[in-house]
Amino acid sequence: MVYLQSLGAAKLIVVIAIFLLTFYVISQVFEIKMEANLGHIFARSALDAAARSTKPPRYKCGISKACPEKHFAFKMASGAANVVGPKICVEDNVLMSGVKNNVGRGINVALVNGKTGEPLDTKFFDMWGGDVAPFIEFLKSIQDGTIVLMGTYDDGATKLNEEARKLIAELGSTSITNLGFRDNWVFCGGKGIKTKSPFEQHIKNNKDTNKYEGWPEVVEMEGCIPQKQD
């Protein structure tokens, strides 16, 4: 009887020992898995944070640096030959582009409120097969304090006359007097400007240096336009 009791006690001790050993092994495995999962999560978070910190910031219109306070960001490009139209962006708002389907052969013009940066009007004037008179009337109608952005597409000069060139020069352009057949040109000025604008790029049509057959390469320009103050 004593022998049986001792045997039963021994079995019980063995069962308890096996249970405790099994529990210990399971807890260790679970702890290892938890540590591995947490380690993976923390490592992933650290990598994501590092990626975010190294990603370069994006500025309005995709320009290379942020504009100071009380300035409007802009970026623009002339047309490419007679295939891709010009693009004009102000304050992260694309005003004119081929995608918007509001550009055309000649001189493309966007008007922006000089105080608020809000778009006022967009138009294009065919300077190859069109009439310069509507363009002249449009230029005369621009109100003081208006920001004026212009870009050529295909040909922006053939129909330009002295009066039209003078009106554009009064907006701050220096290159308009030399703009010729199929030249590429982008310009940002303003009505009532007292000095010549620093925002202008011009490439002559030259068969020896043209990037495209019959047209020079695209001209691009970006910058920060000072807000008009009262």
From TrEMBL:
This is FAM3 metabolism regulating signaling molecule C. PROSITE patterns: GG_LECTIN. It comes from the Eukaryota. GO terms for molecular function: carbohydrate binding. It is found in: Secreted. Keywords: Disulfide bond, Lectin, Membrane, Secreted, Signal, Transmembrane, Transmembrane helix. Residues 105-192 form the ILEI/PANDER domain. The keyword Disulfide bond applies. PANTHER family: UNCHARACTERIZED FAM3 (PTHR14592). GO terms for cellular component: extracellular region. The keyword Flavoprotein does not apply.
